[in-house]
Amino acid sequence: MKKELLELREAMQAHGVDVYLIDMGDDHQSEHVGDHYKEIRFISGFTGSAGRLVVTRDEAWLWTDGRYFVQAEKELSDTGIGLMRMGKPETPDLFDYIADKLKKGGAVGFNGRTVAYTDYIRLREIACRKGAGLVTEYDLPGLFWKQRPERELEPCFILDERYTGMSASKKLDQLRADMDRLGAEAHIMCTLDDIAWLLNLRGGDIPDTPVFMAFMLVEKDRARLYTDEAHLTDEVREHLKAAGVEVDTCEEDFYSDISELKCSSVLIESAMVNAAVGAALPEGIKVIDRMMPTTLRKCIKNSVERENLKQAHIKDGVAMMRFMHWFLEHVDSGELTEWSCVERLHEFRAQQEGFLEESFTTISAYGENAAMCHYHPSKEHDVPIRPRGLYLVDSGGQYYEGTTDITRTWACGETTREERESYTLSVIANLRLADARFLEGTGGACLDHIAREPFWRRGLNFDHGTGHGVGYMLNVHERPVGIRYKAVPERLDQYPFREGMFVSDEPGVYIAGSHGVRTENLLMCVNDMKNEYGQFCRFEIYTLCPIDKRPLDMSLMEEHDIELLDSYHRMVYERLSPYLSGEELSWLEKMCAPVKNTL
């Protein structure tokens, strides 16, 4: 049993807490957080980006989703913490479990600044039913985390209008019009990507996600940004002043200001503000609980953003093509490792003008490691890549022109029948989804079946969504759009598709102890024909990188699947070839040749 778990139980006993909940997020309900907020990793050793830990006086369980089942099982071994596999019939709901373990007269605790207000409401109801107390003012792991990393606070920078397509003042005008339509006199914003998008600012407080720690309070005639002095350069201050935004460098002022609101109505999205925000709202104020207007506006890319994103994907395509070329040239040497591939891919991306950083930690996984959907290698625990089996790389970049996210699986040499079947199904599913035509307003659950059907027909499945929204030089996972067959209400990812929504297409197969495959492209939803049935939409593929044809099992592919693959490769060659010459160009031509000419 980990000593940190024992120390947490001692802290629980000292503060009269019987059940303690630790969430994965920060004060802003962020999906990815800096090391300062990684309390679950500190207590349990689990390094995934999604999970919730519940600790009682004699039990401890981590809830996580299918992306992390294999990884979590390994990392939780011998820690005294069990694994709850979310979505499985035998797994209890987290709140039902807390209700069952909370005794009458006991107390449930959590950090009110990192747990969502919606969860606070549910836990308050449970405590009421049990005649129990709520303890929200303590960050218990922080009391004994002696080597806790400091929060990273980097200066902000302005994202020019030639990249955003709209000024911050115009975005604020739109937001106020949305507030007026909803009947809200004030709007509280805590999510970092919404604030960054609204103000046309970017930062560096969270690795691979160019945001900065801040809160906002927007009223009809006043907008206030609450952020640390470290974020503010003279240029940023002038930018905010020109947009009509006041700046307050004291975070505690945010909580006191919302507790003193004099307006009659306030707009919040309760799942995206922390419990301390909800608790601070004045009694009697009307709360309009709706998805933040900026969330939808941010999700629908404007014409400038869409054109920039095409340029970002050309740059990323050149980098990925060069990495693929390098990898396939050297894999027979036996000198490649998972970590050396991470470093080399970064070098190729860094050569591209306008590249800032990766958009998430690169997944570089050989063989059975790829069966862990979100596996990450490290320099300290490097794994050699052998000239056989499959290698999976899932990575992306942050460019001034936008955010990229791509997955490719490549044959390292001889492959088994099962590996070839898994690989071919992922390619088929990816191409068929990208070829979809659908009426505007179709949700992700409907589209998901297109990608899963080839797997389901063979009794296979993958325990993650088929697609997620992607931000514009922001979060690589962006609400509210998504493609998955199971609704995840807090993600709002059954939102109807419309033109300008940018989404991933990433079906895969994961066979524990053997291999994992995934093929991912990013897709832009665009308008197609319009007739008496309404506006039809289709997807335009933005990602540009050859798909390895060598591991394909042609007996599984229909003629139309081959046509789709050849069509995709024609596009890759047409868009990337102007940026290449010599051996690179010849190699790209070979990789993009029609299937009948290469197999």
State the gist of this model:
This protein is α+β, with helices and mostly antiparallel strands. Strands 4-3-2-1-5-6 form a 6-stranded mixed sheet, sandwiched between helices.
Descriptive terms for the model:
Creatine Amidinohydrolase, Chain A, domain 1; alpha+beta; 28 strands; Creatine Amidinohydrolase; 599 residues; single chain
Account of the 3D structure:
This protein has 599 residues and is of the alpha+beta class. It has three domains: 3-144, Creatinase/prolidase N-terminal domain (Creatine Amidinohydrolase, Chain A, domain 1), CATH 3.40.350; 157-291, Creatinase/prolidase N-terminal domain (Creatine Amidinohydrolase, Chain A, domain 1); 300-598, Creatinase/methionine aminopeptidase superfamily (Creatine Amidinohydrolase). Helix content is 36%, strand content 21%. The protein contains 20 helices and 28 strands. The strands form eight sheets. Strands 4-3-2-1-5-6 form a six-stranded mixed beta sheet, with helices on both faces. A hairpin with a 3-residue loop joins β25 (508-511) and β26. α14 (303-330) packs across α15 and α16 (417-434) packs antiparallel against α17 (444-456). The chain is globular. It starts with a helix and ends with a helix. The mean pLDDT is 95.
